[in-house]
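Working notes for the structural subgroup meeting. M.R. asked for a predicted model of this chain before we commit to crystallization trials. I am recording the input and output together here so anyone reviewing the notebook later can reproduce the run.

Input as submitted:
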Amino acid sequence: MAIELTISPFPPIKPGCLFCEPSKSEPTRHLEKWDGWGGGHSARNLAEITLYESDNLRVIPDSFPVRPDGQHVLIVGKKHRTAFAQPELLVDEVAHFLKRLRSEASGEVIYAEHGGGMPDINHINRPDKNMSIHHRHAHVVFGSNSLDPLNYMRDALTREGWSPRDVETHQGNPIEALRELYTGNPYLFFNIGNRGLWVEDQDDRMVSMTTQRHLSTMYGEPVNWKQIPSNPNMANEAYVRFAKLMSHCNGSGLFIPR
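Returned structure, recorded in token form:
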């Protein structure tokens, strides 16, 4: 049964959170050679790059895009929450962004989110143990392909012991669907157009990077952003994909780096 919440128990800003305070985080070292930092600055944190912005949302590059052409970004909520299913629900802002992206991008647009649970009333700061970054963000992957990502993800999740549920999304708006589905538990939601997959993780056992692992494998080779600091080949490939994404962001379309 979906929960009815209008006020979040989380603070608007959480000190030390990468997405709340990106300028206070460590530089993204594998991007040091990128010439787009501007002003003679050395590398800063990737999360400081804004490609698109609205009142309550920022869109930033992914640290290791799953597509070799780099067409993979993150939607990040400005306030500190752990899921887009939590209040405040940014229904219109997410829908507007996805609609614009679908009109500009060739091919389909994938929305994928590993959302967090609501904290226990007596453990307000309890994190979801398997999330890499405990701040609401969703992966948006776009571009043409000859693949079937929805069925691929369904099969991959089933092989891992999950039972993904097929759901419909009204006018391709994932947040509207999340409003009806969320019970306060962690979840994975995978959406393309009007179709989606829903997995409720009642035991909080879904490992981080589930979406990245499966989608990158579907597009070619599995990638792992956590290996970048220790694996020069991973670091170089992540930079190449990032550079390809940024080359698309030339100021004439939806994404304008700032």
